[in-house]
Amino acid sequence: MTMKITEQHYARLIELEKTAVRYQELPSDGDQPFIIKNGEGKVMLSAPHGAMTCRNPEKQVWHEEDEYTAGMALLLNEVMKAPIIAMVRKSSAYDPNWTEDDCAYKEELRRLIQEGSIQYVIDLHGAALCSSKLDS
Asked: Among 15, 62, 88, 96, which is least packed by CB within 10 angstroms?
């Protein structure tokens, strides 16, 4: 299947980021900082850095959001019906890619894989403009 990315796709991406994602806002009491959208197919998209995440709560070591990754996951769910899990609110408790312990995000991802027909997970990330890895 070939698909052309249009101006409407870009506009929708920006709209999704503005309406569904709050980089630095903690979730409401009892809510998780991530969103799950069901879809079709065997490939799931994971956007663990769609919002700020804390890598070390005791030392307050934070990972900035990878801008537009949550929006891209949400857009791909709409356009291609891909199942997704994405951080859409700030997490002061964990970074899903950093923690070795189980966390709610990893537990949900595991459940979705086990209960669904997911065979592959794409770990969707952006790149920070100031990343030292971009310098080399």
From this structure: 15
Q: Which residue has the tokens 């850095």?
A: 49
Tens digits of residue pLDDT in 47-106: 999 888 888 777 788 888 888 899 999 999 999 999 999 999 988 888 888 877 789 999
DSSP per residue, the chain: ------HHHHHHHHHHHHHH-BTT-PPPTT--SEEEE--SSSEEEEETTSS-EEEETTTTEEE---TTHHHHHHHHHHHH---EEEE-B-BSS--TTT-SS--HHHHHHHHHHHHS---EEEE-----TT-HHHH-
CB within 8 A of 87, min separation 6: which ones? 33, 34, 47, 48, 49, 50, 51, 53, 65, 70, 96, 105
Kindly report the average pLDDT of the chain as a whole number.
87
61: alpha, beta or left? (left if phi > 0; alpha if psi -120 to 50): beta
| Phi then psi dihedrals of residue 66, to 5 deg | -90, 100
